[in-house]
């Protein structure tokens, strides 16, 4: 009995979906016995940003939320997750852990439907298998990667499918589906403007071509009119009502609709521009393409801050091999995918609509690896088309399917090998989360826990407190105070800690008041550091920062403040210093502090080889750095006794030297640092547990993370 195309499509979708899920469960199998990756007997997630949406979902479900706590209770990710957790009989931790695997696997549906739209279901099936587990797509949608990426490629691929069918079939329902997809995509991912506009521009160019060639263009003009109304910068519900209203008008008064179609198109353009237009697109380009190392804030005071974009790997240039691997699995498959896509376009010109996704994916080569996932579905269709077309040249059916199967396995194997090797740990281990869980019982929801921005979301989720910075709030002016706190001596750091928290709270109050006033009466306030400088009567921020060494009057304490100092911050300490190690008045960077960490060292009778040309001479007490021999100021050894108490053995060798060596025996690591690093708050409080009792009080002390309370 012959299988209908509908049944065949469903079978392919189910197989591809099950395959995508099964591959993602490899991680679960690999780490099923690792208890440090679990909390309350549930796997924890493995992306920092996931805790942002988890916090919002948690607060939606609990009904507890307060002003200025940064909880995203209105975000699509949080709302959808809360709904799923409410209706399904699974724990919240299980839901957020497995959601990426389930929703990301939905990508196979539009890919297979695209294959069907060009009359080649097998192309869609093979492409779905590859795209669902391709390097970059898997990396950002694996189990535990709870982030917007779990649907960020599904929506634009549905968008591509609906455009293809709307143009090919000339049916009104696909125009409506396209508009709905835009609205849903924007609801899920507000940064979707660029891709939406690229699709619009491509279809618009086709309409112009049809107009010049005197072809019938009315249906496609109607398509881009609906697209533009759906793309307006208004609330999703408003756009939904407008689109539905237009569709009802189309069905009720078709002749009237087409009579005024040009006017409706013009109106859609005007409304698009008036409601925001290109502003969000330009904002994204400035953030990821035209990024500078220094950002400038100017009002009453002109300050220069270090831009966080320069420190984020996903926003930087990547090697070509990495670029190709992330899209297709290896370079060979990548080049064949391009050849296949060109062949696919030659046979099916409508597949030119895939160019916006390819273009955004190729932006990754210079704009950052996060974009590679956009090219995955379209180039997967390219290699799949190549495989099917070459296989069809075989005269023997058995040989034809054998070639198709072997070629498919060949393009899948490198990606599966990557999945097996890609053993990503959870963001925090169980021991680290236990610290924050204890802190949750000590601190109130209005208190601040200050740490580096990488840990902001997890801190808020587990400790249920406020933070100064996080994965979405980490520009240069915000990171400067935190960097200053962590990398400067205790006395200065403590004052900055109190100042930044109180100034942050004050800015919230001013923002609330400004929302109640008209534009002429609004209070102008610049960034915290700039405002501190002006409020303390200085015109030069360097003078203000120098005043922190003196006994300045601090703002009134309104809440408790805690410091979160994890061992893992040791790996990024040099990066942390970048944000405060510069002259804010000129933007000139200071000399980078000396910091070297070694966990792979070798020791013999004469020297301790720390690697990279750095050695410790045991007899002379000298340090060899390359070709230089330098004196050591202090040699410190830290160790924990059986009761868990930290001890330090300190030997001063040459007090005039600027270089210190620290051996953290329980961690199996040597640190070679200059005096500025040695005297920094992070090193004194975390490495040595040396603290000024007038300034700080230890709350939780463990080898992996330490929490101190500010006393001033």
Number of helices: 31
**Number of separate domains:** 3
- What is the terminal-to-terminal distance? 81 Å
Counting helices, strands and paired strands, the structural category is alpha+beta
Taking strands numbered 1, 2, ... along the chain, how are they ordered across the largest sheet?
7-16-15-13-14
Estimated share of beta-strand residues? 5-15%
Question: Quick one: how many beta strands?
Answer: 18
Report the sheet with the most strands, covering strand number, pairing sense and barrel closure.
5 strands, mixed
Global morphology: globular
Point out poorly predicted stretches.
Answer: 290-298
Q: Please bin the fraction of helical residues.
A: 40-55%
Radius of gyration, in angstroms, nearest whole number:
29 Å
Short description:
53% of the residues lie in helices and 12% in strands. The protein has 712 residues and is α+β, with helices and mostly antiparallel strands.
Describe the structure.
This protein is an alpha+beta fold. It has three domains: 5-421, no CATH class; 430-569, Pyruvate Kinase, Chain: A, domain 1 (3-Layer(aba) Sandwich), CATH 3.40.1380; 594-710, no CATH class. The chain contains 31 helices and 18 strands. The strands form five sheets. A five-stranded mixed β-sheet has the order 7-16-15-13-14. A hairpin with a 5-residue loop joins strand 13 (634-640) and strand 14 (646-652). Helix 6 (121-133) runs parallel beside helix 22 (397-421) and helix 18 packs across helix 21 (376-392).
């Amino acid at each position: 009995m012959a299988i209908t195309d509908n049944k065949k499509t469903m079978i392919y979708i189910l197989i591809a979906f099950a395959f995508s899920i099964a591959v993602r469960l490899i991680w679960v199998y690999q780490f099923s016995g690792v208890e440090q990756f679990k909390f309350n007997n549930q796997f924890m997630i493995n992306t920092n940003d996931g805790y942002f949406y988890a916090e919002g979902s948690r607060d939606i479900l609990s009904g507890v939320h307060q002003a200025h706590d940064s909880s995203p209770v209105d975000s699509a990710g949080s709302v959808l997750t809360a709904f799923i957790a409410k209706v399904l009989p699974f724990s919240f931790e299980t839901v957020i852990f497995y959601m990426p695997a389930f929703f990301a696997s939905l990508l196979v549906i539009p890919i297979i439907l695209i294959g069907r739209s060009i009359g080649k279901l097998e192309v869609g099936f093979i492409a779905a298998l590859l795209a669902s587990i391709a390097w970059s797509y898997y990396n950002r949608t694996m189990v535990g990667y709870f982030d917007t990426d779990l649907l960020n490629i599904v929506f634009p691929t549905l968008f591509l499918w609906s455009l293809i069918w709307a143009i090919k079939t000339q049916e009104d329902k696909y125009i409506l589906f396209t508009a709905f997809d835009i609205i849903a995509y924007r609801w899920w991912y507000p940064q979707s403007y660029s891709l939406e506009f690229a699709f619009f521009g491509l279809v618009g160019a086709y309409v112009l071509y049809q107009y010049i060639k005197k072809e019938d263009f009315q249906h496609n003009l109607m398509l881009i009119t609906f697209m533009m109304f759906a793309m307006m910068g208004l609330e999703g519900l408003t756009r939904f009502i407008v689109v539905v209203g237009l569709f009802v008008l189309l069905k009720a008064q078709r002749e009237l609709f087409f009579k005024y179609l040009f006017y409706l198109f013009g109106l859609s353009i005007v409304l698009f521009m008036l409601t925001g237009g290109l502003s969000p697109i330009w904002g994204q380009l400035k953030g990821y393409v035209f990024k500078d190392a220094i950002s400038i804030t100017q009002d009453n005071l002109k300050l220069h801050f270090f831009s966080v974009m320069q420190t984020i790997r996903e926003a930087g240039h990547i090697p070509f091999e990495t670029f190709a691997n992330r899209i297709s699995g290896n370079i060979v498959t990548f080049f064949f995918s391009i050849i296949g896509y060109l062949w696919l376009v030659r046979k099916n010109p409508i597949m030119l609509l895939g160019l916006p996704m390819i273009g955004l994916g190729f932006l990754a080569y210079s704009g950052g690896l996060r974009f590679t996932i956009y090219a995955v579905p379209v180039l997967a269709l390219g290699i799949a088309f190549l495989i099917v077309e070459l296989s069809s040249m075989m005269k023997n059916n058995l040989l034809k399917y054998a070639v198709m199967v072997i070629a498919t396995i060949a393009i899948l194997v490198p990606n599966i090998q990557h999945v097996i090797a890609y053993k990503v740990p959870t963001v925090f281990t169980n021991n680290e989360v236990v610290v924050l869980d204890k802190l949750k019982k000590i601190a109130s929801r209005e208190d601040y826990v200050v740490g580096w921005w990488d840990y902001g979301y997890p801190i808020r989720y587990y400790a249920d407190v406020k933070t100064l910075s996080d994965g979405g709030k980490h520009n240069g002016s915000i990171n400067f105070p935190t960097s200053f706190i962590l990398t400067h001596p205790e006395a200065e750091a403590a004052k900055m800690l109190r100042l930044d928290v109180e100034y942050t709270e004050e800015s919230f109050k001013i923002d609330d008041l400004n929302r109640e006033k008209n534009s002429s009466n609004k209070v102008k306030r610049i960034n915290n550091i700039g405002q501190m400088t002006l409020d303390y009567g200085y015109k030069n921020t360097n003078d203000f920062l120098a005043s922190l060494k003196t006994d300045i009057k601090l703002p009134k304490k309104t809440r408790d403040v805690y410091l979160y100092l994890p061992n893992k911050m040791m790996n990024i300490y040099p990066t942390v210093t970048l944000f405060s190690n510069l002259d804010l008045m000129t933007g000139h960077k200071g000399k980078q502090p000396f910091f070297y960490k070694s966990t792979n060292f070798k020791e013999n009778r004469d020297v301790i080889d720390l690697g990279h040309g750095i050695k410790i001479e045991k007899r002379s007490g000298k340090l060899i750095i390359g070709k230089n021999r330098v004196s050591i100021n202090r040699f410190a050894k830290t160790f924990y006794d059986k009761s868990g108490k930290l001890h330090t053995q300190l030997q001063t060798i040459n007090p005039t030297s600027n270089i210190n060596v620290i051996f953290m025996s329980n961690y199996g690591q040597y640190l070679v640092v200059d005096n500025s690093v040695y005297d920094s708050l992070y090193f004194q409080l975390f490495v040595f547990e040396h603290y000024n009792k007038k300034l700080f009080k230890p709350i939780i002390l463990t080898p992996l993370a330490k929490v101190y309370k500010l006393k001033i």
